[in-house]
Amino acid sequence: MQKIEKIWKVLELLNWSAEYLSARGIENARLNAERLLGRILNSDRVQLYLDFDRPLTEAELLRFKEYIKRRLGHEPLQYILQECEFMSLRFKVNPGVMIPRPESEVLVETVLETCREKFPSKNPIRILEVGTGSGCIAVSLAKHLPVVRVTAIDISDEALKIAAENARLNEVDDRIQFRQLDFMRADFPKQLSEIFDVLVSNPPYISDKDFPNLPVEIKEFEPLIALKNGSDGLSFYHRISQLSSSLLNPSGLVAVEVGLGQAAMVEKIFLEHTFSKVTSYKDLNGIERVVCGEIGNTTK
Predict the structure, then answer these.
(1) Interval 124-156: pLDDT, tens
(2) pLDDT, tens digit, for every residue of 215-250?
(3) Are 64 and 189 part of one and the same domain?
């Protein structure tokens, strides 16, 4: 007699896979299971539970099994899904770019608020983003503040392709120029033909000492060039502070994301150069996550 294969239904499979992932140390196991199964069935989380009794086909089960296997190998959920959400917008991601994180939303929100206060009547507000990666910061700024025009640079051609795709996806590609440039090259300022009002960056800031302590999902899957920054993790902040006066208008603004425990060191770096005012901003966990420096006299 031929063996009858088990027929899995949506809710049963969700319950089983959530327990399976959780038992193997995967955080937010149920959410992972919901997102993965939702991708396969083209359903959101609510629809999954409305269709709780729906049986899965053999092809759907095989695809889900492959997703679970990849997640158990600690491949980030966002890379498996090839997308994530940031600032309530949808972004494409792949292993060529860092995964946008909620902490970086503090950087975007700080720049948006400061631009509205500092440049209330300026149109356009010209922004230079250093190290655009997925383009999440540049795209979010352009989407939430229509008067901005962004020049977004990155050394990675692969990252720039993803960033350009995300700009098109979110319908702001007409206000963002993507350029492949190396910010650390000595002749970098000569490669730009304009002066900016704002420089924004979430640069590589993981030190050699801290890198081994990162979660597997980060250190083994995300691009090293977007993570590591030499022995102390501070070289990009030194470079930004050195170039700001030549890249920005006299009342320009610099806003950068910093790592845990780095805010005081970055503040010191900024104050040693041309910044007249330096301020730090905390994320929702109370960690100083963003440092802003203003050049020259502040204006409103």
Answers:
(1) 999 999 999 999 999 999 999 999 999 999 999
(2) 999 999 999 999 998 789 999 999 999 999 999 999
(3) no
- Angstrom CA distances, 260 to 86, 279, 287, stand at 21, 16, 7
Q: What six digits make up the tokens of 237?
A: 């902040």
3-state helix, strand, coil in the chain (%, to 5): 45, 20, 35
Together in a domain, 105 and 238 = yes
Overall domain count for the chain: 2
Q: Are 179 and 206 a contacting pair, CB within 8 Å? A: no
Residues 6+ apart with CB under 8 A from 172: 139, 142, 143
Residues 229 and 98 in one domain: yes
In the numeric block, the tokens 């910010």 are attached to: 183
- Residue 80, in any domain of the structure: no
Q: What's the CA gap between 24 and 262, in Å, rounded?
A: 33
Query: pTM (2 decimals)?
Result: 0.92
249 in the same domain as 102: yes
> Which residues 6+ apart lie within 8 Å of 25 measured at CB?
none
- What's the rounded Cα separation, in Å, for the pair 97 and 223? 6
The answer to whether 239 and 183 have CB atoms below 8 angstroms apart is yes
Torsions phi, psi for 105 (to 5 deg): -65, -30
What average pLDDT score do residues 171-186 get? Answer: 96
d(CA 251, CA 247) in angstroms, rounded, equals: 11
Structure tokens at 90: 């949808």
Q: Which residues pair with residue 126 across a beta bridge?
A: 149
Strand, coil or helix: 300: coil
Contacts of 225 (CB under 8 A, 6+ apart): 155, 156, 204
Domain that holds residue 106: 86-295
Decide if pLDDT at 74 tops 90: yes
DSSP state at residue 297: S
